[in-house]
Amino acid sequence: MSSWPAPCLDGIRILDLSRLLPGPYATWLLGAMGADVLRVESPGLGDYARWMPPMLGPVSAMFHVINRGKRSIVVDLKTDAGREIVLKLVAGSDVVFEQFRPGVLDRLGIGYDVLRGVKPDVILCSLTGYGQTGPMAQAAGHDMNYQALAGVLALQGSRGGPPALSTPPMADLVGAQTAVTAVVGALFRRLRTGEGAWLDVSMTDSVAGFAAPFVAALNALVDAGEPEPPRGDGLLSGGLAQYNVYECRDGGWLAVGALEPKFFARFAAVCEHPEWMQIPALPNPLQRQLRADIAAVVAGRTQQDWEQALAGVDCCVTVVRQPAQTPHEPQLQARGLLRQGPPGLESVGWADTPLGPPIQGAPPGVGQHTDEVLAALGLDPEAIRAMRASGVVE
Questions:
Q1: 16, 172, 205, 352: which one is catalytic?
Q2: For residue 136, what are the CA distances in angstroms to 18, 85, 145, 170?
Q3: Is residue 124 part of a domain?
Q4: pLDDT in tens, 132-159
Q5: pLDDT tens, 158-189?
Q6: Is residue 323 in some structural domain?
Q7: Is the pTM for the entire model greater than 0.90?
Q8: In a domain, 32, yes or no
Q9: Is there a domain that residue 24 lies in?
Q10: Is 172 a catalytic residue?
Q11: What letter does residue 327 receive in the DSSP assignment?
């Protein structure tokens, strides 16, 4: 059983205005650390990530995983009454999380200056594609666009092929992780100074920073007058035989990460080719032939054969698991990370975030907590019914 960290954000309230993947993923992580997350959804269908197939029970699998343990209220932010409800909620919140394009909050009448007027130490986290400033600030985009602009998409893919899209979407999730780090840092700073903050988090900035060491290494080669390695031929992207992926006889794959000599020596011994040790794990003309030799040997056995042959051999070589195999992986089981789907769908599994104890329960229905939240703000049942009738809330 894994020992999870204490819920360090216990008592922190987050008002989440975001939707789809990046923002809700970030608030999922914050919720795992103990924060109380209240989602503000739009009238009608709410967050339309709920309905993106494949489904897991009444909502999409993606929505189910990253929205468990949260609450939901439906408010029409374009109405004056809806705006007043949000401002009342802000007064009792520590963090407001949003994912609109720059300027939208101001047009809705709930920009940072307004929020700060309601709660001076509020932390506003704005997660956007390109950031609040710069020539691309107002441009639309998705994960692949952010990676493309940051120079990261060009790094991915096989030798001789086009740039490859990453799964999961790297810029979205790295941006979400960056936002979580920024929020936790701002909360810590507020403890010392009593001051809030407006956090400008860009998914393009985040993925560019994520790849910074690798981009710098490639640019250093170019600056030194050396040719840039073709895509799929870098030190850690397929250029080394000792760090590569090889196909087994049955179509499965073997991930060989035996960079250090001691590990490669053990793998070479299992393969009965000790002469491979004569070729160092560095760029050199012999690497291409070594890749071909290893590929031929790996292709001679099934994935299960390799798993048996490598059992107990500490050599940084791993069979490539399929997602469907994850719920049965002993290492993840031992760490206590595995979760099951809702009743009747227990066979659907995934590994949960390691940032906190397991999140219990299902994701909220659209506006499931609207009445409860409005009552806590002091509205009586008649006032709530009137707001529902006018479409301000659902």
A1: 172
A2: 20, 32, 11, 20
A3: yes
A4: 999 999 999 999 999 999 999 999 999 8
A5: 988 999 999 999 999 999 999 999 999 999 99
A6: no
A7: yes
A8: yes
A9: yes
A10: yes
A11: G
